[in-house]
Hints:
Layout: H1 6-9, E1 11-15, H2 31-36, H3 38-44, E2 48-51, E3 55-56, E4 68-72, H4 79-91, E5 95-100, H5 110-115, E6 129-130, E7 150-153, E8 158-161, H6 176-190, E9 196-199, H7 219-227, H8 233-243, E10 251-255, H9 264-268, E11 277-279, E12 288-289, E13 292-296, H10 301-315, E14 322-323, H11 333-336, H12 344-355, E15 361-365, H13 386-397, H14 402-412, H15 449-453, H16 459-472, H17 475-478, E16 480-483, E17 491-497, E18 502-508, E19 514-515, E20 528-532, E21 546-547, E22 552-557
Parallel strand pairs: 1-2, 1-15, 2-5, 5-9, 9-10, 10-11, 14-15
Antiparallel strand pairs: 3-4, 6-8, 7-8, 12-13, 16-17, 17-18, 18-22, 19-21, 20-22
Helix pairs in contact: 12-16
This protein binds 1-O-alpha-D-glucopyranosyl-D-fructose (TEU).
Amino acid sequence: MITRKWWQEVIVYQIYPRSFKDSDGDGIGDIPGIIDKIDYIKSLGVDVIWLSPIYKSPNDDNGYDISDYYSIMDEFGLMDDFDELLHKTHTLEMKLIMDLVVNHTSDEHFWFRESQKSKDNPYRDFYFWKKPQNGNPPNNWKSYFGGSVWEFDDRTEEYYLHLFSKKQPDLNWESPKVREEIYKIMKFWLDKGIDGFRMDVIPLISKRLGFEDSEYDNFGKTVVNYYANGPRVHEFIQEMNKEVLSKYNIMTVGEAAGVPLSMVNLYAGKDRNELNMIFQFDHVEINFGSGGRFDPQNWNLIDLKNIFNKYYEQLGDIGWPTVFLGNHDFTRIVSRLGNDGEYWEKSAKLIATFLLTMKGTVYLYQGDEIGMTNITIESPDDFNDVETINAMEDFKKRGIKDEEFMRIANQQGRDNARTPVQWCAKENAGFTEGLPWLKINPNHLHINIEDQESDNNSILNYYRKAIHLRKEMAVFTYGDYKSLNNEDPNIYIYERWDNSNKILVVLNFSSDNQRFYLREYSDLSDMELLLSNYDNISEKTHQNNLLEPWEARVYNIKY
Ligand code: TEU
């Protein structure tokens, strides 16, 4: 019998603090705002809060550029506020994990300020510095955020490495002093009582020190073969586990940017002594073309099913799955995978059904529980995300028209997931009394928490029902999974089973009626319907094997 771990059974709720709730009217979400809403978070039935970075930061990348790991970002409040949030979270029998960003720091961190002073500064080797090659950057690597990964620094006339923005210099994990400092940071927060870490781009921490030119034009292939999965990455994570993680009863999830399915168990296999689980990205980057995020391509359900099927097959009983469809880096799930127009409510509930009936640890992102959608940004000046702003410059250089960029940025940009949470239909959606840091979606007038609280048939209350059902039946967390109709382009049907229950999940990912036929289940009429996003009586014109648009059904199959 495999020993079950608490972090396998939890539902995690990701908070992007900047956009969650503002308490002091500066237009920026903060920790006291989260405290104000802690009872709401608890009412969802979630178990763990994942807090996106709250450390001191100049916010070039909204906190993923840290200038002091031991203090709280000014706009978010004080360390006392954090201590109160942690206490209240634990009092309500929830846990809290922090976002650990240690592949890079801010260029305003003390270490980098020292490092760039001189070539013999004691902190010089905390980062990667290289001489120009015939006046050019050391190699052809491109940043996630556009341009070269090398920024020239006049002071010492050398380039420094930054896989992300130029204000996010990469740390040199080859240095034992760097690793020692990072382990100190981790222990500081763990000794305060936090319950684990989400580890930002952890597969990137080991660099290939030859810094050879990438042979690929395809950005994704360059990431996999040149940035991620470096020669010492597992040595470093295993050392981190030995020195820190193994000493605490915590959960760890690695953001596995650039990790192909074939390598997932190397990072999170149960006997690897590395991480508990990882986020793999094939499914959320399904509409990324060869040029990455701003080179969108169409996606289809058959490909999505294949990705999940391969994921579960690859993990086998060695690795533990994560189940997520969105976060602060990807557009809103109802707009990306559902239908945020005519079938907004039905498709949001269908996506909730998928998230809460798949195998693994479930991660929900703030606002998805009420079906928050993408936003239409009219002016280029209204984009905040450094990745989008840099891409705009790149499009201009390539002579692509602004209108085309605006279309793509509105479709793919990360700002879509970062609009303030819509608490009510009042001004600024109840997020702030001040001027919001990012435009609030005008549809908060009809998509907001207050209205959905009082509507038993709302998306919010459907999430609560689905979360409750998942907690009632262990088969959803631990049961086996098998997809039944891989070639169907519209319907996703899968079984979940264990020794006690067998579940059939039927999801119509289309805006049309769809008929399905399964040899194994020719007549479902006498099967117990555990959950559906259509009311069987008032809303259904068909029974059994004909599905309404975006209809989701969860059947309890009698053994
Ligand atoms: O994301 C890194 C990553 O691999 C991508 O998902 C990235 O967000 C990019 O948008 C892909 O197109 C992590 C954080 O989640 C992200 O918010 C940070 O911007 C990034 O690392 C740098 O810290």
